[in-house]
TrEMBL record, chains A, B:
<feature type="active site" description="Nucleophile">
    <location>
        <position position="313"/>
    </location>
</feature>
<keyword id="KW-0963">Cytoplasm</keyword>
<keyword id="KW-0328">Glycosyltransferase</keyword>
<keyword id="KW-0479">Metal-binding</keyword>
<comment type="function">
    <text>Catalytic subunit of the queuine tRNA-ribosyltransferase (TGT) that catalyzes the base-exchange of a guanine (G) residue with queuine (Q) at position 34 (anticodon wobble position) in tRNAs with GU(N) anticodons (tRNA-Asp, -Asn, -His and -Tyr), resulting in the hypermodified nucleoside queuosine (7-(((4,5-cis-dihydroxy-2-cyclopenten-1-yl)amino)methyl)-7-deazaguanosine). Catalysis occurs through a double-displacement mechanism. The nucleophile active site attacks the C1' of nucleotide 34 to detach the guanine base from the RNA, forming a covalent enzyme-RNA intermediate.</text>
</comment>
<feature type="binding site">
    <location>
        <position position="354"/>
    </location>
    <ligand>
        <name>Zn(2+)</name>
    </ligand>
</feature>
<feature type="domain" description="tRNA-guanine(15) transglycosylase-like">
    <location>
        <begin position="34"/>
        <end position="403"/>
    </location>
</feature>
<keyword id="KW-0862">Zinc</keyword>
<dbReference type="GO" id="GO:0046872">
    <property type="term" value="F:metal ion binding"/>
</dbReference>
<comment type="similarity">
    <text>Belongs to the queuine tRNA-ribosyltransferase family.</text>
</comment>
<feature type="active site" description="Proton acceptor">
    <location>
        <position position="112"/>
    </location>
</feature>
<keyword id="KW-0819">tRNA processing</keyword>
<dbReference type="InterPro" id="IPR036511">
    <property type="entry name" value="TGT-like_sf"/>
</dbReference>
<dbReference type="GO" id="GO:0008479">
    <property type="term" value="F:tRNA-guanosine(34) queuine transglycosylase activity"/>
</dbReference>
<feature type="binding site">
    <location>
        <position position="264"/>
    </location>
    <ligand>
        <name>substrate</name>
    </ligand>
</feature>
<feature type="region of interest" description="RNA binding; important for wobble base 34 recognition">
    <location>
        <begin position="318"/>
        <end position="322"/>
    </location>
</feature>
<feature type="binding site">
    <location>
        <position position="193"/>
    </location>
    <ligand>
        <name>substrate</name>
    </ligand>
</feature>
Length: 404, 404
């Protein structure tokens, strides 16, 4: 057993050579910052960077069809391995010809390892943790929070957890996570990692990062047996411990991954995140694409784009829309359900050409929410997706204009 | 008061002359039946007949955008005055430029009087009544069922009811119903009528029909004060009492309405409805369009189209889709949520070119329903709307080919 606790050396992997099916092209590098405009070429088409990646958890963007997402300019979409593992299951997706065909999507897809959700259930999500107040929060410091006992067991081998759907026990290991993602067939896949909570002892964090390194190496080995035109991004861990982050960058970037993702707890607030990313970003290889996991709010984007991060996923813009909060370049953020919008006959955003803004007023969408009509969340979500893709296009233009 | 209990004679109205904004053109009359292919010209474009009219109760077709409805070939859409009266209210709709502009619809709209919903709440809907079993049903015979006390009072003047939203008392009269519909501005409006229950004494039914005649005449008088490019259809009542139906046809068709609708209880089952319509249809003027209120299931359409009914509204196709039941020319009716569809990788309908059938399999839509993803009901509803418009196009072709 002891031998397995050492991370496999990079020399046990083939050295990285460019893929014919996956290529990151840097079109322009700012002279003002580390920002760059690029294009990731995948088997299902290009991804312009910096780019926003909406999250279609269950192989669907809630309230927005694939065709509407295409029209909104969505290129890369995220789907969650964990949810798809429980329903409809990788076998069904494989029988349906893979995730693209199954969900009727022609453009690029990225899936995660499933680890994030499993460990979020175990520890509570980072987001929950950061928004916990008082005793609950401080009381949690330094130890793993006990989850709703969905995670039965974490071992070197992997994790055993109970399905929230039917209670059956499921084992997820680096190898099985990759096999699941092989069955899905997304263009970009993620190695199995652990998401330890923000509040954790240094010793436990270190042990977790080292185990995650071993898990990522095993994931990569499994992936390389059958690459299947999929790219794999190595995930940098280490929480807010700079020494561990340094170690993680060195180890993960020594392996032949196709790109990098920044994962784990990245700070209790935006400033701590910015500080951490300022430390991390200059140390990552510039020639491979870099993805920031789970963050795409606008203030974070303004901070992160100049650091050279290329893609950002978040379920926030779609979730906000679904609950009636929309973004607007002309009016700021609006909660459409507020009574003051009942006779607000202008569009959400004067500069937006999305179907919601072209055909409907704030007052109408307000009415739809008040009347519990599903078209309210459909239109608000569609608008927010348009807003995000337009925002990213603006970032790309600003970089090309050397404004960023 | 007694004077008001006599229906105003048709001689107190101007005689009907064709409108410049509303015209019913009969393109072909079958030599085999009373079926006809026609076109209703409205200020917001044509309605090809026989035509299906989906119901967008709250000024929205649940799960289907206006643009998707247009693409599906929907021409006339129904919206419910009662729901829109409570939310967002006629003043808000008028302030937003009328219902078309408010809801972002460029094609024709029809609104009802609000009476149907008010009285459905009072008596229970006809549908509920017909599906009630045993004691509950027979125990209801011959008397008005007490509703959830939403209707406070029915008088010659109109009806006072409580809003189910906030409990406030609202008075609906023939005049106010028309004024509300003036504020909405739909292309076709309906005079205020009462919907008595199927199980009612002959005396009460007769009193109700006569009162409805007086209400319809008052509605028409109110409408003619300010026609506002709107057409008004007179509603034929009389339940399943042929003598009263005869009387209602004679009275209503003597007034200068732009078309006719068949309302009230039309039978406890499809055969009783067919028998009643066989009696009614030859007696209605052929040169004006005829609408059947609330019925558009496929077996009913097969019976009713040959009788010469021109438009049919129903919330059934969209409600069925929303709950996972879809129609298919190649596979019959399917309940998508059934486990057997989990690996059913073909489309709902091989002959359908709707976005659901073009891009997605039954298995995927099944998964969306199982995962409670809103896109499931969006795709299934969109498909059913396509199915209905295609079915009506087929009816028109079959009439033109003299097959019907």
């Amino acid at each position: 057993m002891h031998r397995r606790l050492v991370s496999p050396s990079s020399s046990s992997f083939p050295s990285y050579s460019p893929r014919d099916f996956f290529r990151f092209e840097i079109l322009y590098e700012s002279t003002k910052s580390r920002a760059r405009v690029g294009r990731i070429h995948t088997p299902h088409g290009p991804i312009d960077t910096p780019g926003f990646v909406p999250v279609g958890t269950n192989a669907a963007l809630k309230g927005v069809t694939q065709q509407q997402a295409d029209a909104a300019g969505v290129q890369l979409m995220f789907a969650n391995s964990y949810h798809l593992l429980l329903q409809p299951g990788p076998d069904t997706i494989a029988a349906g010809g893979g995730l693209h065909k199954y969900m009727g999507r022609t453009r690029p897809l990225i899936t995660d390892s499933g680890g994030f959700q499993v460990f979020s259930l175990a520890y509570g999500s980072v987001h929950e943790e950061l928004t916990m107040k008082g005793a609950g929060r401080s009381g949690n410091q330094g130890k793993y929070r006990e989850g709703p006992s969905s995670v039965a067991k974490i071992t070197e081998e992997g994790v055993v957890f109970k399905s929230y759907r039917d209670g059956r026990k499921i084992t997820l290991t680096p190898e099985s996570s990759v096999q699941i993602q092989k069955a899905y067939g997304a263009d970009i896949i993620i190695p199995f990692d652990e998401l330890p909570p923000y509040h954790i002892t240094p010793e436990k964090l270190e042990a977790s990062v080292h185990r995650t390194h071993r898990w990522e190496a095993r994931s990569l080995k499994e992936h390389l047996k059958n690459v299947q035109n999929q790219a794999m991004y190595g995930v940098i861990h280490g929480g807010v411990d700079y020494k561990l982050r340094q170690e993680s960058i060195e180890y993960i970037s020594s392996l032949p991954f196709d790109g990098h993702a920044i994962g784990g707890s990245i700070g209790k607030d935006r400033q701590e995140m910015f500080d951490l990313l300022e430390f991390v970003m200059p140390k990552l290889p510039r020639e491979k694409p870099i993805h920031l996991l789970g963050i795409a709010d606008e203030p974070s984007l303004h901070g992160c784009v100049p650091m050279g991060i290329d893609t950002f996923d978040s379920c926030y813009p779609t979730r906000a829309g679904r609950h009636g909060t929309v973004f607007s370049t002309t009016r700021g953020r609006m909660h459409l359900i507020r009574g003051k919008h009942a006779r607000d006959f202008g569009p959400i955003d004067d500069n937006c050409d999305c179907p919601a803004c072209k055909h409907h007023s704030v007052a109408y969408i307000h009415h739809l929410f008040k009347a519990h009509e599903p078209n309210g969340m459909m239109l608000a979500t569609l608008h927010n997706v348009h807003y995000m893709t337009r925002l990213m296009a603006q970032f790309r233009q600003d970089i090309l204009d050397n404004k960023i």
